[in-house]
Write a structure and sequence with these properties.
By secondary structure, this protein is an alpha+beta fold.
């Protein structure tokens, strides 16, 4: 499954949100320094989709707020179901 999302560091808690237009935003507790926010993002998505951290890959956006992520071993249908349950 491929996810396009926006990461917002320095939040009070890790949280996944969906805007009215369907875009995903992830609020992260970590600061955007030395890859800390990216590490928290990978761990958070691994927990959300119940996969090992090694199955969550950051494809692009290492230093940008807009990220392209791949969750290996999760189909599009299953991923959308997980997102719908989490966000609703």
């Amino acid at each position: 499954m491929i996810l396009h999302l926006r990461a917002k560091p320095n939040a009070r808690q890790n949280q996944l949100l969906r805007a009215a237009d369907g875009t995903l935003t992830v609020r992260l507790k970590a600061p955007p320094q030395e890859g800390q926010a990216n590490a928290v993002l990978l761990a958070f998505l691994a927990t959300v989709f119940a996969v090992p951290k090694s199955r969550v890959l950051l494809l692009s956006g290492h230093t940008a707020p807009f990220k392209k992520m791949e969750i290996e071993g999760v189909s599009e249908e299953e991923g959308q179901r997980v997102l719908a349950e989490l966000i609703s």
